[in-house]
Design brief:
The protein is of the alpha+beta class. The protein contains four helices and seven strands.
Length: 129
């Protein structure tokens, strides 16, 4: 069963101020992410982001000849589609579920609707100076 509030388990959502969280809240839907579910495809627009509470997503660089190299992991500390928070709407990487997630949150909306808020959100979610 999903938590009553997405801020309880996803650390990134938990770090947002109440005001910033309200920007996202209306767009969040509970979701179960199954093994190998594609979250992002290389060089395609990022339309949705996922805030996982459990499970792990793999971020994979796809090289010429379809050679794949895992370059990152996403768990309860982050989100898929992080390129959006950096001002880009595409990623050169593939991201998919490597360990099934029984709890998570899906935000499906046009990121352009909150782009003006992205700088403030970035400053509040930046763990590293």
């Amino acid at each position: 069963m999903l938590a009553a509030s997405p801020t309880q388990r996803n650390r990134l959502l938990a770090r947002l101020s109440q005001r910033d969280f309200q920007l996202l809240k209306a767009h969040l839907e509970p979701v179960v992410l199954k093994l190998r579910h594609d979250l992002e495809k290389p060089n395609r627009p990022i339309e949705d982001v996922y805030f996982m509470e459990t499970g792990i997503a793999s971020v994979v660089a796809v090289q010429s000849g379809e050679k794949r190299v895992e370059v990152g992991l996403i768990g309860c500390e982050g989100m898929s589609g992080s390129a959006v928070m950096l001002g880009n709407h595409r990623s050169p990487h593939s991201t998919y579920i490597q360990v099934s997630s029984t709890n998570g949150w899906h935000a499906g909306f046009s990121w352009r609707t909150i782009e003006s808020q992205a700088a403030r959100c970035r400053s509040r979610t930046n763990f590293f100076p």
